[in-house]
Amino acid sequence: MPEVRFVIPDLPGFGKTPALKSSNLDSYGHWLLDFCNQAGEFDAVLAHSFGTLVLANSLSQQLKAKKVLLQNPITSNPRKGLIAKAADLYYELGSDPRSNLLRSQLVVRGMSIALSTTIRPGLRRFIHQQHANYFSTFDNNQALYQAYQAASSSNVLDYVAVLPKTLRIVAGERDVVAPLSGQKKLAELTSAPLRVIPKTGHLTHYETPAEVAEELALLLES
After folding, report:
1. CA 94 → CA 34, 85, 87, 128, 130, distances in Å?
2. How far is Cα 142 from Cα 19, in angstroms, rounded to an integer?
3. 50-86, pLDDT tens digit by residue?
4. Which of 8, 64, 159, 216 is the most exposed place for a label (fewest CB within 10 A)?
C-alpha cells in the first residue's frame, strides 16, 4: 500500500525500545496513548495479536481512534488447559535473569512451526528466519515474563464497550492462538465485519498480507 504512511512502534522491551518499569497491560495501554499523541494525527490503527489487547486497553484510557482494524485479536483466556500451564511454567522458569531458556532457538523454531499453516516451502523458511532473527530481541527475561502475564490477564472481549463503531476484524480459520470462535463472538458483540481467511492461522501478516491489506483499504475508505 504505497499510498499509505505507516508508523510502527516497537513494543516497549522489544526491538530497540527499552522496557517499561512495570510491564502490565495498563502500562502498555498508557504507553500507546502517549505514543499516538506524540505521533500526530492518524486515520486508523491496525493491531495484531497482543497488540489488539494493548490497543483495546489504550482505548479504555481515552485513546482517540475512530477507525480500527483488529488482526487476529486475542478474544479468549489462554490460562486454561495443560498447554497454558506448560507455558506458565516455561515463562516462570525463564524469568530468572541468569536463564537463557526464553532465548532458546529450539523453542523459537518449535513455536514457529506450530504457528505456520502455509504449505509454501519458501514462505515457511522466511517465517522461520524472521522468528529466529527477531523473536528473541527482548530487553530482559523479566520484561518478557511480565509481557506474557499481561497478555494472559485479559482479552479484547472485555473492552467491547470502548471499541469504535468503525471496526473491522481479520481472523485466521486455523488460528490456535486466537481461536475463530472468539473472533465470531467479537464480531457479534460489535456488529463489525469479520474477514475469515481460509486455511490460515495466527500469522496472517506473513501468510496472507494481500487479504489483510484489502481489509485495511476498506477500513480507510469507510
Report:
1. 30, 14, 10, 22, 22
2. 10
3. 999 999 999 999 999 999 999 999 998 766 666 678 8
4. 8
Residue 56's SS3 state is: helix
The residue with cell 523453542 is: 107
Look up the CATH number of domain 25-77+154-221: 3.40.50.1820
What is the C-alpha to C-alpha distance for residues 51 and 29, in angstroms, rounded to an integer? 10
In angstroms, the first-to-last Cα distance of the chain is: 17
Model confidence pLDDT, tens digit, residues 3-45: 889 999 889 998 888 899 888 999 999 999 999 999 888 999 9
Residue 186 has which C-alpha cell? 467479537
C-alpha cell of residue 125 = 523458511
**Domain ranges for the chain:** 25-77+154-221, 81-145
Give the type of residue at 104.
S
